Amino acid sequence: DRFRLRSDLDRFRAMECVPSHPFKLVRPVLTPRFAAGGLANIFGRRPVMLGGLIIFALGSALTGAAQSMAMAIGGRSVQGIGGGAILTMVEIIVCDLVPLAERGAYFGIIGCVWALASAIGPPIGGALASAGQWRWLFYLNLPLCGIAILLVIFFLNVKAPKTTTREKLEQMDF
After folding, report:
1. Average pLDDT of the segment spanning 145-149
2. Cα–Cα distance for residue pair 82/149, rounded to 1 Å
3. Does the pLDDT at position 42 exceed 70?
4. What is the CB-side half-sphere exposure of residue 160 using CA atoms within 13 A?
5. What is d(CA 89, CA 87) in angstroms, rounded to the nearest whole number?
6. CB burial of residue 69 (10 Å; 0-12, 13-18, 19+)
7. Nearest-angstrom CA–CA distance, 79 and 7
């Protein structure tokens, strides 16, 4: 019996959006750890951003390959952890690189990207889901994450802390 997102959800009409909830729950819960919690200050902006991208890609792959509702929920949770890191790091990096007087324009651009994604994402997702190809909603993130990882590696030049791994770990407030 192959896992089908729609047929499983049909059994649980009251929980139609269950696979999206873990993403929405985990992202804001863990976001302070990336920002106020100081991972970016301890380890540097680039490693935390790369970690977020890798975790998001892993969550996308797990959700796309899900063989059960539990696996889809778990994958979305992993995706939410990565998404929280990415969202927070984008804001931190903009604040690091852009003077205060110009930040509004950059955050406006980020808002426009969100608006565009919010406008075109649901019709694309609906078309894929209607065609029984819902897994591609998640697989499409993989090449985009790969491109983002390459851009971060080659073009994100921000200061990194000059401490040893041991010193960094000692700064962690678990």
Report:
1. 98
2. 13
3. yes
4. 14
5. 6
6. middle
7. 23
